[in-house]
Amino acid sequence: MSSFITKTWVPVVFTASSVIATARNSAKLEDLKSKETQLVESEKMASLGQLTAGIAHEINNPINFVTSNVNPLKRDVGVLIDMLDQMEALSLEPAAREERIRQIETIKEDADYDYLKTEIDFLLKGISEGASRTAEIVKGLRIFSRLDEDDLKRADVNEGLNSTIVIVNHLLNNVVEVEKNYGDIPMIECYPGKLNQVFLNMMSNAIHAIHKRWKGEPGGKLTIETHNGPTNVRIVIKDNGTGMDEVAKKKLFEPFFTTKDVGEGTGLGLSIAYNTVRKHAGTIEVISALGEGTEFIITLPINQ
């Protein structure tokens, strides 16, 4: 028994209008892609601006420790040098031992030597603490500022969260309590800079919501947790701020949606955060109640 395959050729006609329409659609698509890139860059620059403001504020205090202690220390060292010069001159003069001891005691009393020792010790401790704090901030900056890194690598999520807390510390205004409950989690395969931008956005939003509810009064709390799973890690960023209703929750990750006042945000941060987590094959869960607060639960695989 024979079988036959019948082929039918259908001519495809390209009209001038269809070609023009295709070209227009292609141009529109390219324009949309270009605008999307510009918006992402705009959000990145907003993050960079926040980063710069945070670093400037955080470094200012420890640097003040150092600079404000330098002049008093310089003065005290000058007094010590003057004492040594006097004692050197004294050693060249012929005098009985008792007389020399009396003259040395007079020099020490005139210089208030005991207070001088205490003050120098205090000033050096202040400089040491300021320098250590500055080094800690710079380390945090080095960890955080990987926004342009495109390489997949293993990174410490707890370390990334800590560096982000350093960046947002100036937003706390000394009234928002930060509680950290970190689990013993493994390093994960990720794009570290992009994840840090996610953490920055969520923490900034949380702090904004806390200030909006508590209005500068104590009671606001930002809780950061990490948990280990069999094949993933879980990051929890929780606040006791204003919270959201169901309408806001449904629109939360839509581009340009924001609950902030005009001029306070681009409305792109959480949309970019959502896409970043998806790029990591992860998920974001949101738990929120109006007037009670919001909890973001980010789940990320250990291996990509």
Structural class: alpha+beta
Shape verdict: elongated
* Uncertain spans: none
Ends apart, CA distance between termini: 54 Å
Question: What do we call the CATH homologous superfamily of the largest domain?
Answer: Histidine kinase-like ATPase, C-terminal domain
What number of structural domains do the residues give?
Answer: 2
Main sheet record: 5 strands, mixed
* Sequence of secondary-structure elements: HHHEHEEHEEHHEE
Rg value: 31 Å
Count of extended strands: 7
Beta-strand level of the residues, as a percent range? 5-15%
CATH class of the largest domain: Alpha Beta
The number of helices is: 7
CATH architecture descriptor text of the largest domain: 2-Layer Sandwich
Task: Give the CATH topology of the largest domain.
Answer: Heat Shock Protein 90
Approximate helicity band? 55-70%
What is the mean predicted local confidence, pLDDT?
81
Give the neighbour order of strands across the main sheet: 2-4-5-7-6
